[in-house]
Design a protein that fits this description.
Blueprint lengths: L3 H13 L12 H12 L7 H4 L2 E2 L10 E12 L5 E11 L4 E2 L1 H12 L2 E2 L1 H16 L3 E10 H4 L9 E9 H4 L1 H11 L2
């Protein structure tokens, strides 16, 4: 249930843009808006360490790269509150432990469902995986389209931004870095 003052804040926002919050099409908008924003920003209520299930069983003699490709990314630009979206490519080189593959996608969700800039998002994912799993190396590449560029401002449709964060052996070893980039098609 939403607090009356929160509903009134949304009604005031509608008035600010010249709308009538009492018209039929907008009567339920404050409730829907608040419910949607709770979902868009649910990452503030989640901690990476709570979702990163790590296994030693199954990790024996696993010393080659593990990659999860094309993970959906949905977030909100903290500067304009406009959406940005795309995909993430995440890889790591295990060291005695592996992580549940679905947990890598969940990690993207935890940080993506906060107000963000893509550069920070990329580093937060890499740091959380590196610090919690303690692998030999981690690589994160994110490619997104930003509505703050496409629907306002410069209005260049289809422009994507690519960011990367490398840790450990993937950063330090050019051959390992090339392997990651070739496996994700970059």
């Amino acid at each position: 249930m939403h607090r009356p003052e929160d509903l009134e804040a949304v009604r005031q926002l509608l008035r600010l843009i010249g709308e009538n919050p009492d018209r039929e099409g907008l009567e339920e908008t404050p409730q829907r808006f608040l419910k949607a924003w709770a979902d868009y920003t649910r990452g503030y209520n989640e901690k990476p360490e709570d979702i990163l299930k790590v296994f030693e069983d199954g990790a024996q003699k696993v010393d080659e790269m593990v990659i999860v490709r094309d993970v959906p990314v949905y977030s909100l630009c903290e500067h304009h509150l406009a959406p940005f979206f795309g995909r993430a490519f995440i890889g790591y080189v295990p060291d005695q432990r592996i992580v549940g593959l679905s947990k890598i996608s969940r990690l993207v969700e935890v940080f993506g469902r906060r107000l963000q800039v893509q550069e920070r998002l990329t580093n937060q994912i890499a740091d959380a995986l590196y610090n919690n799993l303690q692998p030999l190396g981690v690589a994160v590449v994110i490619e997104c389209r930003h509505m703050c560029m496409e629907s306002r401002g410069i209005r260049h449709v289809g422009v994507s931004t690519v960011t990367s964060a490398l840790r450990g052996t993937i950063k330090d070893n050019p051959d390992t870095r090339r392997e990651f980039l070739s496996l994700i098609g970059k």
